[in-house]
Amino acid sequence: MEKSSTILLVEDHHLAAKVAKNILSSLNCQVDIAMDGKSSLEMFQSKHYDLIFMDIGLPDMNGYEVTRRIRSQELTKEHVPIIALTAHADNQNQQQCLDVAMNAVISKPLTRERAQGILDTFILTRQQHEEYAGHHEDLGETETHGEKIVDFEYAKKLFGNNEGAVREMLNMLVDSLPHEMKKLEAAYQHENWEAIRAIAHKLKGGASYCGTHALKLACNDLENYIRSGATVQLTELYQRLLSEMLTLQKFMAGKNPR
Fold it and tell me: What residues have CB less than 8 Å from 212, skipping those under 6 apart?
């Protein structure tokens, strides 16, 4: 039985909210509804959510602004995927959603098929790890910031259960870290945060495929914070990324998967 997921649905249309809640509830989700931006921010601050469905057109502020505020507050909370719900999923709207660090954009109405796809893609705990029981090695026992350093079984699923391919990708990622750290440090010395954002974004892509969740989260948080325009904790997030890179290096050296 998969773990129930906690969802925040930000939708100001009562009927649309009710339909979406029914769909999500049928997919083993506990759903809270916020009818405007202010209440959605209050609910985000008071409770952990596995994912947020964000309507763009809200009565007090649009979904872009709500997302900006959520991303700027995520320094003290775990990163949460935000999925835009819009009646106009054209290229311009999609770009606006991505610019404020939303994770995906889907057109209204929310269907069961779309909801299932989003939940399975963005909520790791919904994946059925039981089917992998009996494999001889677990590279992900140690955690940082509540995330596995390496979730080997997750990566194997992405690579069609090809253990050799996973190890090759992990080695390539780890081998690239010294070079990426040098680039990060050089950019930091020049206070070039856009270059740091670009490096974090690129590194996040590799980390996503390798099941290195702690590193991925550090990249994601730094990238989103830079995009938000906030500056207070830039150095703290930068140092956290370097720390996760070093932690992964040491962890893999200890496992010696080559």
Answer: 149, 150, 151, 170, 173, 248
Q: Which listed CATH number (3.40.50.2300, 3.30.930.10, 3.20.20.70, 2.60.40.10) goes with 5-125?
A: 3.40.50.2300
Q: Is the pLDDT of residue 139 over 60?
A: no
Long-range contacts from 70-74, C-beta under 8 angstroms, 24+ separation: 70/41, 70/44, 71/100, 71/101, 71/224, 71/225, 71/227, 71/228, 72/225, 72/228, 72/230, 73/41, 73/44, 73/45, 74/221, 74/224, 74/225
Query: Which among 134, 45, 117 has a CA at the least distance from the CA of 83?
Result: 117
Mean pLDDT of 195-202: 90
Question: Which residues have CB under 8 Å from 193's CB, separation 6+?
Answer: 187, 226, 234
Q: Would you say residue 185 has pLDDT above 60?
A: yes
pLDDT tens sequence across 72-99 = 887 656 778 999 988 766 677 778 887 8
Encoding tokens for residue 187?
A: 């950019």
Domain with CATH 3.40.50.2300 in the chain: 5-125
Query: Which one of 1.10.3300.10, 2.60.40.10, 1.20.120.160, 1.20.58.100 gives the CATH number of domain 136-255?
Result: 1.20.120.160
Are 65 and 99 a contacting pair, CB within 8 Å?
Answer: no
